[in-house]
Amino acid sequence: MLKPVPEQRWKKYLTDYNEGLGLVYERLVLNDYLEKIASEYNVQSVLEAPLFGMAGVSGINSIALARRGCAVTLVDDNADRLAGVKKIWRDLNLRATFLHHSDFARLPFDDYSFDFVWNWAALWYLPNAAELLKELARVARKLIFIAMPNRAQVGYWLRKYILEKDFVEYVDETWADISRVKKILRASGVEFLDEGVLDVPPWPDTVMPAAQVLQRLGIKSKKLDAQFRGDSWNWNTLDYYSGARPDLRAKIEKYFFLERAPLPWQIKTIWAHHRYVLGKVKS
Question: Thinking of the domain 7-281, which architecture would CATH place it in?
Answer without folding.
Answer: 3-Layer(aba) Sandwich (3.40)
